[in-house]
Amino acid sequence: MKIKESIKPLRPYQPGKGIEEVKKEHQLHYIVKLASNENVYGPSPLVKEKVNDGPIDFEIYPDGYAEKLRLKLADSLHINPDTLVFGSGSEEIIQMICRTYLEPGTNTVMATPTFPQYKHYATVENAEVREVPLLNGKHNLEKMRKQIDTQTRVVWLCTPNNPTGCYISKEELRTFLKQVSKDVLIVIDEAYYEFVFADDFPEAIPLIDAYENVLVLRTFSKAYGLAGLRVGYGVGSKDVITNLNKIRGPFNVTSIGQMAAYFALEDQRYIDRIKAKNVEVRSSLEHFCNQHGLLFDKSETNFLLIHLPTSGITVSEKLLTYGFIVRPGELLGVPNSIRVTIGKKEDMDAFKVALLECI
Length: 359
Ligand SMILES: *Cc1c(COP(=O)(O)O)cnc(C)c1O
What we know:
Layout: H1 19-26, E1 32-33, H2 45-53, H3 67-77, E2 84-87, H4 90-101, E3 107-112, H5 117-124, E4 128-133, H6 141-147, E5 152-158, H7 170-179, E6 185-189, E7 214-219, E8 232-236, H8 238-247, H9 255-266, H10 268-291, E9 303-307, H11 312-321, E10 324-325, E11 327-328, E12 337-341, H12 345-358
Parallel strand pairs: 1-10, 3-4, 3-5, 5-6, 6-7
Antiparallel strand pairs: 2-8, 7-8, 9-12, 11-12
Helix pairs in contact: 2-9, 3-9, 4-5, 4-8, 10-12, 11-12
The protein binds pyridoxal-5'-phosphate (PLP).
Pyridoxal-5'-phosphate binds next to helix 4.
């Protein structure tokens, strides 16, 4: 059977090792997964409590408009409910964007390395992918702007960027938006927004009033701790949202996902606590790296990209024998590094000891 030419070179997503697999393979009882930037503390306890009590009719399709969640989220973001689109994770919205805006003969501009799904779905649509190397872990916006031409449909700004954790400042973003034609969609992926402390991190959502070509992506998978339930959202102009909705599956977010996200929003104090704990443990890991002469990218997220004197693959395999699952930089486009999710304090203290044994 013949498949689309564009997907021939693609490979199915390679998941990292699972907890059970590592336990078995290395005969360990306790495994710490620091590979996918999930919230190691889990969601607010309120979520489990409410979802367990919740009246969910499993036989009924979900609300395709996600009304309860939509109204609550719109209220907390101070936006019009119709400027929201929901996805089965923000990853699905990335796919929707590519389907809606890209086709053969068009191109899309992004950093490298960055979140890999932009390139993946753009390739499926047979669009040309123009990648601009990061500069010290940061987007090189000047060079990215020069890659934009009349055939450019979408530009991806991942901020803070995965896998480096570096962000685009308010001033840099303003300058960039002013210079780029308004017929190019600018996607601002803020998957780690809730972790950011930097004073000059831009509030991107209010920019949509002036820039109808901006679409901001957020997710309940990271700080909110709901990665397993798959809920992400986009905020954009009515025009962009209407077009994305044309190709959105009508029931793409499950009833449980909608309900869990709704209750997660009720407990903002929990998110504040997660943010505070994360920065405390991350600072301690940074301090450790400094002490041992390990370089890292300046992160505003719940992960740290640590540069090593040796292969990240070798080090991550050794770390498995100590029960730590991390992501080797080789798989993310940064050789000789590992990307480490910021775990709980006690786990990270053990991680530091193990890391010294492995490098
Ligand atoms: C984790 C992540 C996402 C995807 O999250 P979903 O679980 O699909 O909502 C999107 N962008 C970046 C940069 C991420 O790190």
